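Hi there,

I know you've been waiting on this one. I reran it after we fixed the sequence typo, so this is the corrected version. Both the input and the resulting structure follow.
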Amino acid sequence: MAKDKSQANNDIGKDGSEQRARYIRQQGNFTEEEELEVRQQWASVEEYNDFLELNRAFLNGEVKLSCYHMGPIYQETKAMLPGLLRLHDYGMLTFESQPSKFIERTTEDCPCCGEEKYVETQQRAFITFILPYENNNISQKAMYRFLLELMIDDNFYVSILNFDRSCRFGRCKKNVRIASSFPANWATHINISVRRTLQGRNVEEELLTYYQAPTKDELVDAIPRTRQWIDPECCCMLDAFRSDANVLENVHPLLVHVLAKRWEEQDLPGLVEKAAIRAGMEPAFAV
């Protein structure tokens, strides 16, 4: 019996998803069995500290993947590892970050047409982490001071998101609240002044600038694009940490984004740790 059109489309979609899953496993060098085991480990945590332990193991390369990243950490993250691991000692579960970096004019082969393009890239550092709002190991007074220290620090912009609870299906967040020092127009539009940023001038609005031109000489006059790699108003990324015991939701997590104000290289994890120390937070989760 012939399949109807909708069934055929569903099969195509299913096949595409399976092909993508196989490709991700191949790139990450892990098997389906390993993926299922890791997902089960993250889903069966019983307390917040278990999340920290699993993430430390992932960052240290003891396991090949995590509940939020299908594969080893990126090469550029390795330089930040010591600082990211220290933040775990204060209860901060870091799961997205990048260092400041400037890549001078390089060539890039377009995968679509095979043409060679000249590319120039600049990015500035950011860290995204989870902090438990209700946890016996963290003083509420010290946490308030820490959040204030982050907000008033001249080294970075900060966004803090919190919510009351999830819907019955565990996805929608109820009564989401956001406190942010991010500039209103950061990286939401193309700004020709980005080219001047790459020549040493400071432009505050963009997270990452990207040039593409057919020749090296034309790169100087190329129209730049800007990208946002984080969304301070979205909490969907927390879905990856759902567990059978609702551990994350039970601690009323704060989702924190810390974005460097300057493009120059700096130790962003170290600056966040210094803010925690000034606030009187203790490394109560250290191992």
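Quick highlight: Residues 5-28 form the longest helix (24 residues).

Best,
R. S.
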